Amino acid sequence: MEKVLVVKSIDELRAKLKEYNGKTVGLVPTMGYLHKGHASLVEKAREENDIVVVSVFVNPIQFGPNEDLETYPRDLDRDIEIVSSSGGDIVFAPSVEEMYPEKAEVFVDLESEIGEKLCGESRPGHFRGVMTVVSKLFNIVGADRAYFGQKDAQQVTIIEKMVRELNFPVKIVRCPILRESDGLAMSSRNVYLSAQERSEATVLYKSILRVQREFESGEHRVEKLKEIALEEIGKSPIAEVEYVEILDSRTLGNIERVNGPALMAMAVRFGKTRLIDNCLLEV
Amino acid sequence: MEKVLVVKSIDELRAKLKEYNGKTVGLVPTMGYLHKGHASLVEKAREENDIVVVSVFVNPIQFGPNEDLETYPRDLDRDIEIVSSSGGDIVFAPSVEEMYPEKAEVFVDLESEIGEKLCGESRPGHFRGVMTVVSKLFNIVGADRAYFGQKDAQQVTIIEKMVRELNFPVKIVRCPILRESDGLAMSSRNVYLSAQERSEATVLYKSILRVQREFESGEHRVEKLKEIALEEIGKSPIAEVEYVEILDSRTLGNIERVNGPALMAMAVRFGKTRLIDNCLLEV
After folding, report:
1. What is the pLDDT of residue A283?
2. What is the rounded average pLDDT of the residues B199-218?
3. CA atoms of B87 and B110, how far apart (whole Å)
4. What is the pLDDT of residue B95?
């Protein structure tokens, strides 16, 4: 295909994909307002599949009542251009009514420490909404592979667990975080930041770099590494830390020392904007 | 295929089904100890699909702590014969370890009146277990059609809702209740009944017949129809009624009069054995 096909209905998407029976399909689920991070997922999917579907859907059931569902940035025309230039074939951009014709009452959820830590604590119901919509997308698209960014580390860990436990016939591909030239992790929400906030938000990556440095110099005590991160983030007077955690990267369980692969993850508010970032620490 | 293929591993089943790419697949999910009711599902699937898979799996997560998981009757050799004589191609009989290699922590669940009524009230967690295992089976088999008995009316209503909301690419086929010559609905659990219990359990179908007769004679008041059913069931001194309900058959919501399609459903204990039965009442 040369031109990106934009599909808004589930039936139309299924009919289209049926034409490609036998070809491999890669799915990149997104909430739109795409940036280079998303583009890198689409490019990866392009390398590995015959057909690349990018879904653009701001999923209401993963937002809490006081979150930014209404103001979440949207620009479908720009998204289509980015998908096109990254090698995607189909943009699936359903309406809320198409995805939820009835009030959602069937959910995929998890009862696990993995869902209660980090963003699970501050955003109750968030991962239930994510798992439910991703299940719907898997069932609609029937993809062979699905691409998720490591930026949302807890999300991709949970999706991998869901795929494993519910036997979804799809391979999850984790893709690395993309960063702006000053290190800020790319995010659709960065557009919310004022000039000052945007400038100060660089403390997140600075804290990651400093922790990585200390870790490589032999500091493996979690409390100490967290202190270092908090000190670095504290250099911004407007940064409000929601959490900084270092956890077992597979189970998201608490650890006291980094002996195996660990995830350092943080959520920090700058004004009204909540940013997340993370890195892996491996011995 | 002439002989039934018995498969115990998910990977082997998937590999086998991949060989039949392009053929239609019908799935009959069962807990085994098959009877003519199951056989009728397999025969229906045989008529409508190229390949018929019958799963035989006593799903632990749909049993409550005080229920009959341990004693639930099992006889795989007999099941294979029944599948064979009903025209099935593959028996998928995984172990508990194959289906749940880790402790189950990801569940499909519903938050709806539909799940809280009838068996949902007396068997908390039951439908969550059913929805979760059926999701797994759908994902493993990738069936075009799946066959469920109307005997478990609430179950099939919930599965239909799940398929609709989560967009599973499968068509649910409801099949009628099969009955013994004296009217008792066929069930794997009938084997639990003593001779006396077996004889008295016929009050269930007698109550259904009497309610249907009164309904056809113009009695549409739900309270009155329930009274008639309870009176008929009460003719067995050992029958212990768990519920007798008449509800909107689509939403399972309460009604006072039968104006649209309604479901009369009952759960009654005879000794230690809990039996369910139901019928549709339509104007």
Report:
1. 81
2. 98
3. 34
4. 98
Residue A268, beta-bridge partner list: A241, A275
Out of A13, A17, A26, A38, the active site residue is A38
In the block, residue with structure tokens 């077996």: B198
**Closest CB from B21, B110, B136 relative to A105:** B110
Region of residue B142 (left: phi > 0; alpha: psi -120 to 50; beta: else): left
Q: Quick check: is A38 catalytic?
A: yes
- Cβ contacts (< 8 Å) between B165 and chain A: which residues? 102, 104-106, 136
CA distance B256 to chain A (A): 25
Domains defined along chain A, listed by start: 5-175 (3.40.50.620), 188-278 (3.30.1300.10)
Looking at residue A96, its pLDDT comes to 98
Query: Angle A126-141/A153-166 helices, nearest 10 degrees?
Result: 60
Residue A36 marked as a ligand binder: yes
Are A110 and B109 an interchain contact pair (Cβ–Cβ within 8 Å)?
A: no
CB pairs under 8 A between A and B: 78
Is residue B256's pLDDT more than 70? yes
Chain A residues with CB-CB distance to B14 below 8 A: 169
Quick check: B278 contacting A, CB < 8 Å?
Answer: no
Give the pLDDT score at A1: 45
For the cut 90, the answer to whether the pLDDT of residue B236 exceeds it is: yes
pLDDT digits (tens, 9 = 90+) for A1-57: 458 999 999 999 999 999 998 899 999 999 999 999 999 999 999 999 999 999 999
